[in-house]
Every structure is written in structure tokens, then in C-alpha cells.
Amino acid sequence: MRRSLGLLSLLALFALAGCENDVRSLASWGADSYYGDPEGYDWETDAAGMWDRRPNLEECSREAVNLWILDKLWDMYLWYDHLAEDIDFRVELEPGDFLGAIKYKESDHFSYLSKKEDHDDYYGGRYYGFGFSFRKFPDYVVYVTLVIPGSNAETAGMRRGQRIIAIDGKTVQEIEDNNLWGTVTSRPEDKKDIPLEYVVEEDGEEKTLTLYAGDVTAPSVYKTDILEDGDRKVGYLMLKSFINSTNGELDTAFTAFKAAGVTDLVVDLRYNGGGWLDGSEHLASLITGGELKDKLFTRLTYNKKHQDYNSDYHFKDFAQSLGLQKVVFIATGGTASASEVVINGLKPYVEVAIIGGKTYGKPVGMNPMSYCDYTLVPITFKLANGDGYGDYFTGMPADCEADDDVTHDFGDARETSLAAALSVLRDGTCPAAPAVYAWEPDEIDVRTVPYRLGWLF
């Protein structure tokens, strides 16, 4: 069943990751226990995933799903040796709560469980809703931050940089004071033919936009442009995610960049929470190519049970690769996972500048695993670049701080972060930075999975 969403936000789907329930020793361990020994499972000498020893559980029941989660963590989890040895899968916790309770909380802010349909829809770019997001500021100020190309919101005339004045006949202040955001932005499928009116302000002029909810297929690339800056041609790429369509969309963008004679590049990853690792390698190879072909881009290292899964990703050389020696990235606390891998993977070889704010900090990745109608996406490997560096759990700091200026659209040279990026490319100077928006961890959808293992569902 599809979710009924009034807006596309940057909120993560990982389920109740902060759950603190104790699932150890909540019931006695009998001789017929799945793990046999009442002292706990001997994971040092016995392999996990012994389904022939599982208790007789109803297929796809809560207990069966929780046991499946536990099996997969014993086997594939990067931090499996930090799991408690007496976890009781029979505890009365729903699967998302169960995962949140047993994972290694000190380091794992990332592993999540979702419905399989939601997971598949994410990587297919499929949503149900209007196709935009907004951000609230103090004093009842709300700005549109992102509009999905081709969505109903874009068709209705919604643009990033518009200030929202009223929704469905209610002012922003009325909505905020009465906690009506969920009510005024929601249209379930059985009411999708009922329009929703937004009053927005753009360039000092108020406009009324009529939006209908519906199916949205989001691309990976949201905006490309070629900016003339003196005698330089600067390519601008706003990349929202690394999903199924990413590599083809990147090929199209870089073919145009190369044909236009682009000499410099700004890659906008400010809202890119990650995705397929294969897309990271592809983007890095399009930026560089040439002499970097076959050099190490990033290395994946699994737990000691699965060292045979360790693998390397290498730079490639494509006809549309730009061969650049310098690249500027726009980043925020919303830049995470596969997007951070691009930045870290390039650093040993070319000059890299980060404009905006500190990135999220996720130098680890995941393999999706499905059972019944759930997809489990646990941390299964760590990442390192060609210099062996991958310790950026606290994020990569900006070289030039700049605000995420939501009053201007992507690709607008007046937008604060892009203006700073152009200044750094022009002469290396960083303009004075205004206050940088502080991102909260739960605003970010963080996903990184290695496509090559072929573990997708």
C-alpha cells in the first residue's frame, strides 16, 4: 500500500532507530532454543543463519521476521561482535523496534528496516504526493526548498525560493500555531482529485498555485546549467540521489558539458543522502577519467566472516569524462553516504573544495536483504579511499562556509553557496559566510548499497 504524503521531505525511512528496549534474557532459554545454549549463541564457532535449526514459527510472523533480522546481523553486520549474545527474538517488539533495540548504538546511526515496496520505490524514484519539500524558519517563515522536475508541483508553477504564505485557506501562522501541517499538506489516494491551494510569494508578488497529489517519478539529476564566468565555462550539476537512473542521467549531463567546452565544475550535493555506490564511482570517473583510469576509487571491507566479499571500485575513462584536476562540491549536513564517497574518493588525486557546510559523516555502507514484505538494510562494510582514509564519522568540514540560500533556485549564480563556489573557482577567495543552517540527523535519508554484489531483493 502506498503512503499518502503531502510533501516530499528529507526525513529518513529508517524505523525507530533510537529504540532503547532491552531484548536480552526476556524469556528463559529452553533446550530446544534456536541457539541451543542458554548462555547465548556461540557466534565464534558456529555460522549464523542456520535456518534448519529454527523453531517452528509462522511464516512472516513478527517472531519469524525478528529472528531473520537477528540471523542477518549475526552473519553480515559490520559490528556483529558488539551484539549481545543472549538476544531473545521472541520479545514483543515490532521488527523496526527490534532492530533499533539490538543494533550497536554507539556507532550505528544508519541501519534501517523498511517495507520492501518503499525501498523499491525509493531507488526507482517513485513517490506519491505533490513533489516538493519546504523548510520552516522562525517567525512563521516557510520557503520551498526543492521541487521534483516533472512533478505536479512543478507543473503548477512551484519553484525553490518561493515563500509559502498560506495553504488551503490557512495562513502559515494559523497552521503552525494549531499544528495543522499534516492536515493541510496531505491528500490520500482516494482524495487525490481534490486540489490543494498554495499562496506563495515570488519576487515580491503573490501567486496562487493549484496542486493535485499523484504519482511522481523523481530523476536523479535535478538541474544542469553552464555558467559563463569570465573566460571560463562552469558546469553546474544538482544531483539529488544515486538511484537506478543515475548513471544514464549523468552520461547525458556530462556529454553536454563536454560538448560545450566546460572548463570547471560545481557539483551540488547539498541534499544528496546517498544511494548506489556504483553511481559514486560513475560520477567520479566522469569528473576525471584519463590518467586516473584503473586507480583505486574506494575500497569496501566487510567483517571477518566475509573477507571474501571485500572489493575495490576503480576509476574508469568514458568518452564524456572531463579530465578535470579540480572540482568544487556544494555540501551540507544533508550530504551523506554515497555522495561523501565521491568527495573522499577524489581527494587523493585532484584538488577538491567543499563549499557550504560540514557533511553528515557516513564512511560505511550497506547491503539490502529482503524477507516477506520487509527489506533490511544493515551496515555491512566500511569504506576507504586510495590513501586508505575513511575515518570521517564526524563529517568532512567545508573549506568555505556558505549558507544554503533557499531564497534562490538551484543554479542561480546569486544563490549564496553557488556564488561562493564560483568565487573559489575564480580566484580561490571565500566570501564572508552568513549563519549556516544546522541540520538535524533525522532530516537526512541515508542509504548506500554496493550494486555489484547483486543482492537486490
Number of domains: 3
CATH superfamily of the largest domain: 2-enoyl-CoA Hydratase, Chain A, domain 1
Tally of individual helices: 10
Strand order of the largest sheet: 10-11-12-16-17-22
DSSP strand tally: 23
CATH architecture of the largest domain: Alpha-Beta Complex
Largest sheet: 6 strands, mixed
- What fraction of the residues are assigned to beta strands by DSSP? 25-35%
Given as residue ranges, the uncertain stretches (5+ residues, pLDDT < 50) are 1-22, 24-52, 453-457
> Radius of gyration over alpha carbons?
23 Å
Average pLDDT number: 85
Overall body shape: globular
Question: Which class best fits the helix and strand makeup?
Answer: alpha+beta
What's the end-to-end separation, in Å? Answer: 18 Å
Q: Looking at CATH, which topology of the largest domain would you report?
A: 2-enoyl-CoA Hydratase, Chain A, domain 1
CATH C-level name of the largest domain: Alpha Beta
Can you walk me through this structure?
This protein is an alpha+beta fold and 457 residues long. The chain folds into three domains: 54 residues, no CATH class; 90 residues, Pdz3 Domain, CATH 2.30.42.10; 233 residues, 2-enoyl-CoA Hydratase, Chain A, domain 1. It is 20% helix and 25% strand. It is built from ten helices and 23 strands. A six-stranded mixed beta sheet has the order 10-11-12-16-17-22, with helices on both faces. Strand 16, helix 9 and strand 17 form a beta-alpha-beta unit. The radius of gyration is 23 Å and the shape is globular. The N terminus and C terminus are likely disordered.
